[in-house]
Amino acid sequence: MDPSISELSERIREAAAQKRALRIRGGGSKDFYGYKLEGEPLNVSGHRGVVDYEPSELVMTARAGTPLLEIEEALAAGGQMLAFEPPHFGPNATLGGCVASGFSGPRRASSGSLRDFVLGARVMNSAGENLRFGGQVMKNVAGFDLSRLMAGSFGTLGLILEVSLKVLPRPEEEITLRFEMDEARALEAMNRWAAQPLPVSASCHAAGVLTIRLSGSSLGVTAARNQIGGELVAEGVAFWRALREQTLESFRGPLWRLSIKSTTPPLALPGKQVTEWNGSLRWVATDAPAQQVFEAARRAGGHATRFRGNQGTPVMHFDPPLLAVHKRLKMALDPLGIFGPQRLHPEF
Question: What φ, ψ does residue 10 adopt, rounded to 5°?
Fold first, then answer.
C-alpha cells in the first residue's frame, strides 16, 4: 500500500476508535464555505500526482492532493480542459477539494456540472478502508454511483483518495462580447440565445453589462457573432477568470448563491447581483436576513445557498423530508460521524 494511504488510514482508524472528529483538508482554499469547521485537520496534500492520462481516451486519473493548477497545465499541454471550469479560490486548490466542493464555473450551463464528469473514485471510509467506486471509462454503469455522490459532499461522507474525470478538447476559437443593458433585457436575451443553436459557452450580467462567450469552430463562432452582434472584449480570458474566482466588485459582501428558473425576473433583494448560466444562477451580495433569501429562492422555484459570510447560518435550508434523507445518508456512510461534523448543516 502507498505509504501516504497507510498513514491516512491509520489516522482515520485512531480517530474512529476515539470518536474524534476529523476535518479533511487539501489546500484550504474552500475553508470559507460551511456552517462550522470542526475536527482535527486531516491533511491530504501529500497524496498527490497524476496516475494516468492518455489524451486520446479523454480521461485523467489523479490523486486527491494533486494541485488543480498542475492538473490544468497537464491538460492544456494535451489540448484539453476540465470542461466544468472549476473555481480555485486560491493558489493551493487541489483536485480532491475541487471534487469535494462540487463547484462548477462559467462553462457549466453549456458543458455540464462537475458531477457529470466524475467517472470513478477511490474513497476511504470511517473504518479506514480503501474502496473503489465507478471506473475509468465513460460507459460505466454498475450499481449505485457513489463516486459522484462525493461531488459536493465537502468531506462529510468519506476521504477522496483518487478521482477519474472525463476531459474535453479545448475549443478551436473563443471570443467574448459585451452588451450594455439592464438585467430584465439581459435575462430575455440569454434565454432567447440559449434556445438557439449558438455556441454560447458562458454568460454573465453584472453592473448593467451583459457579457457572452462564444466557443467552438472558427466558422461557428464567426457566424454567431454576426448574428448577435456585441462589442468584442479584448481581455475576455481575464474577465471569465475574474468571474470564476469571484474577484469582481459585485461579489463583495456576504454572498448568496441562488439556483432558480432561468426565466425568473430580477430578484427583489437588496444588494449587488450577478447573473450566470443563462439566468439560472444568481449571485446576491446582500445583508438581507437568511429567511428572506431562502424565501425568494423558493418562490422562484429553486433554492438558496449561503456562500460567503453570514457565519452561523446553515448553508442551505432543508425541508424535513430532504433533511431526513441527508441524515440517513450520513449515517450509512459515516456512522460514527467523524468526518466534518456540521460542515454543511447543524444536524449532520
Answer: -65, -45
